[in-house]
Design a protein that fits this description.
Elements: H1 3-13, H2 15-19, E1 22-28, E2 31-37, H3 51-66, E3 71-82, E4 90-100, E5 104-113, E6 118-131
Antiparallel strand pairs: 1-2, 2-4, 3-6, 4-5, 5-6
């Protein structure tokens, strides 16, 4: 599996991740990491990270983790807990496969800031939609 090609394709063609400033920085079997440098648009009225940004990053990490077997996945369910917020400018979301079947992949994700404190975490249930032979063109 060419993980670097999968990372490059994701970072160049995933318009949702590009729009939100999220990039896939690591992918290996059953594991992936996404990162984002935050700006004003990722923050709530109080200057802290918007909860939607945390969940978006976690979902992107879960998708990358599930796809690390070369198949395509979509999220069908998640359970997500927020522990604390941050005013820091960098977030990391890291996912690990908890269970992988033929059609369902369960991924655990943690989101941290640059102090390595866990800010939130969740469990994502991903459904396999088929082979990931190529990412569709723009």
């Amino acid at each position: 599996m060419d993980f670097q090609a999968m990372i490059d394709a994701t970072n160049n063609k995933n318009s949702f991740m590009l729009h939100n400033g999220i990039r896939l920085t690591k992918m290996e079997k059953d594991h992936a990491v996404v990162e984002a440098d935050l700006s004003r648009v990722n923050r709530n009225l109080y200057g802290a990270v918007h909860g939607g940004m945390f969940l978006t990053m976690a979902d992107c990490a879960a998708g990358g983790t599930a796809r690390s077997n070369g198949m395509r996945y979509v999220t069908v369910n998640n359970s997500f807990s927020f522990f604390r917020n941050t005013k820091r400018d960098h977030l990391v979301a890291e996912g690990w496969v908890k269970s992988r079947g033929t059609t369902i992949c369960v991924v655990e994700v943690q989101v941290r800031d640059d102090t390595e404190k866990v800010l939130c975490e969740g469990t994502f249930t991903m459904f396999c939609t088929g082979r990931q032979d190529e990412i569709p063109p723009d």
